[in-house]
Design a protein that fits this description.
Two copies of one chain form a homodimer.
Chain A (H helix, E strand, L loop, with lengths): L2 H12 L3 E5 L8 H4 L4 H13 L5 E5 H5 L2 H14 L5 E8 L3 H14 L4 E4 L9 H4 L5 E7 L6 H4 L8 H12 L5 E5 L4 H10 L5 E2 L10 H7 L5 E5 L1 H4 L7 H17 L3
Parallel strand pairs in A: 1-2, 1-8, 2-3, 3-4, 4-5, 5-6, 6-7, 7-8
Helix pairs in contact in A: 3-5, 3-13
Chain lengths: 265, 265
């Protein structure tokens, strides 16, 4: 089954669009875990086990694993294999390169690591996305409207009437022949999000920015009532607890978010 | 000494602007090396030794190393340490992410791996580049005008009069307070390259696209007579030979390119 079909099925089964963001920051990992040699693997694995019942996907931010070098890459591969089958996996790698290089990135992430979906940067154009697009059973979230303030001077270029992010969204709709494309559209920009949703009514969205970045979960869910979406939330779940019971605290935080979400689903 | 000063000094010392692209593709590595267990390290190390006298930098394309998983990342770290001090190192990682994630990418590449420079994708805006910019002694090449055909529909948006790539180039010039920024500007687009060079007369350029991608070395060098540039060339050097003497062949190919370049320097 293709990625977005699975996503839709899991959404209905689990009454959730929650995607837990696995962003393991050394400084924030509870001291009780950090003392262990395999703290990175242990921390992430226990968070995954505790939150899996409430989410439909895990998003792994590659930056946080690359910060640990080759060891981080090894842990990433092991974690990928430890995700239960009732959750999807998103590689938040934001790769973007041309031809042969893009093929190598796509192979590394979608074949060797075997992630179900990946985030991709469109600045190099859609020929650069093709090696990813060709994996028709995998999902591809193309950066469109990101949640950080500085993104506006690029993504809104040249003006509000015809911003780059809309141009990209429309082109993604055109090239989406395998129905395996979605967009990254931040929950922190409700005005632009509304414009985007009108322009491309069918594209699934990965909607970061809820929680620590200031986006409201209610606004995000109201903006996209009948759409295939994933709402990644990281810090407020994975660092919910600081003691021995950190995984339990993460599970509770994920459960509370799932319960909040199901009112809209 | 800061990156671009070193680059300028090496250019004068070695009469070269050649940057050898280390893109180790399993299919293209000579069979005689591929038989060895440590073929990836051996191949790259011998290419580096043979070509170092003729180039002033090595550019490591992360896609090709990530294709080998954690082992590839380990080899990348070892290769970085094996580059002689009379050559600079460029991490061709094309990373782009926001806030905390960007900080982790920057730390991984510029601190832990200790590369001298890195390529960065500007689609997320310049706040996303800041963690890289803050390493004032390191070099930052921001993607601007890439060498692939499909890039045009994004980078020339919305039209020829005010294309996105020019907007980005001008903004890079403004934010370049540490004088540690350059642009990636492909040698395959001489018309746009000329426009770019007029708009930002002082920014250094990393100019891919010469050789296998169809760009002409002469056109590229004539376009930027008095500028700090780096010309990365990969395939026609590192795969110049297929037999036992593959490293010698790579050295000869690099030497021929350096001799060709010095006419313009």
């Amino acid at each position: 089954m293709a990625f977005f079909e699975k996503l839709n099925e899991l959404k209905a089964q689990k009454n959730s669009v929650l995607c837990v963001g696995i962003d393991p920051d050394y400084e924030k990992i509870p001291a009780v875990v950090r003392r262990q040699d395999d703290f990175l693997l242990t921390f992430c694995q226990r968070i995954i086990e505790a939150t899996a019942p409430y989410c439909i996907a895990f998003k792994f931010n590659f930056a946080f694993f690359e910060a640990f070098g080759a060891a981080g890459w090894e842990v990433l591969a092991r974690l990928r294999r430890s995700v239960p089958p009732h959750c999807l996996t998103v590689a938040d790698a934001k790769r973007g390169d041309i031809g042969n290089s893009a093929r190598h990135y796509a192979g590394a992430i979608l074949e060797h690591l075997d992630f179900d979906a990946v985030t991709v940067n469109p600045y190099l154009g859609f020929d650069a996305c093709e090696p990813f697009l060709n994996y028709s059973e995998k999902g591809l979230f193309i950066l469109c409207l990101t949640s950080n303030p500085g993104a506006r001077e690029i993504q809104d270029y040249p003006d509000r009437d015809a911003p780059l992010f809309l141009h990209i969204a429309r082109r993604v709709q055109e090239i989406n022949i395998h129905k395996n494309c979605g967009l990254v559209a931040g929950a922190t920009k409700p005005d632009q999000l509304r414009v985007l949703c009108e322009a491309v009514p069918d594209l699934p969205l990965l909607m970061p920015g809820v929680g620590a970045q200031g986006g409201s979960l209610d606004d995000a869910l109201q903006a996209v009532p009948h759409r295939n979406i994933l709402v990644p939330i990281s810090r407020s779940i994975i660092y919910a607890g600081e003691g021995e019971d950190f995984a339990e605290a993460a599970g509770k935080a994920a459960q509370a978010l799932q319960q909040h979400m199901q009112r809209y689903l």
